[in-house]
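Figure 6 in text form: structure in, sequence out.
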């Protein structure tokens, strides 16, 4: 059997996995693969000088939250709230990226860009606070 980190990365690429959970040590092992191996389809992340892990992707996104927001015609719609890593990233490019890789029902209908997503000091996303900014002044809400 080969290197489990390399095999894991190969399976992610082959099956176009868009969501996965790993123990931090496995993700770090994937990051320690040779740069040429990691960079075949784009870098999977980087470690800063303090050892904090920052997952990255090829779409120019630093962080993203996908939430349901109010929609006058449908009641709700899927919205991607993006903290961009690239100044030139556009909503159309990100939506096209999603359409190529996700089932249609999983794709956001729109993208909003923010400077920073709300997080607690440990780095966890405050999704409730984010939802509140979009559902404020509406009679119905997703809780």
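Output sequence:
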């Amino acid at each position: 059997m080969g290197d489990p980190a390399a095999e894991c990365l190969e399976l992610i690429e082959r099956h176009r996995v868009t969501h996965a959970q790993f123990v931090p040590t496995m993700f770090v092992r994937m990051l320690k693969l040779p740069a040429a191996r990691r960079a075949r389809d784009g870098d999977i992340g980087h470690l800063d000088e303090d050892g904090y892990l920052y997952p990255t992707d090829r779409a120019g996104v630093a962080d993203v939250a996908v939430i349901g927001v109010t929609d006058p015609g449908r009641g709700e719609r899927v919205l991607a709230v993006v903290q961009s890593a690239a100044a030139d990233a556009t909503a159309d490019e990100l939506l096209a990226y999603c359409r190529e890789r996700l089932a249609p029902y999983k794709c956001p209908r729109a993208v909003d860009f923010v400077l920073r997503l709300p997080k607690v000091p440990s780095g966890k996303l405050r999704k409730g606070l984010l939802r509140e900014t979009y559902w404020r002044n509406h009679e119905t809400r997703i809780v």
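Caption detail: The longest helix spans residues 4-14.
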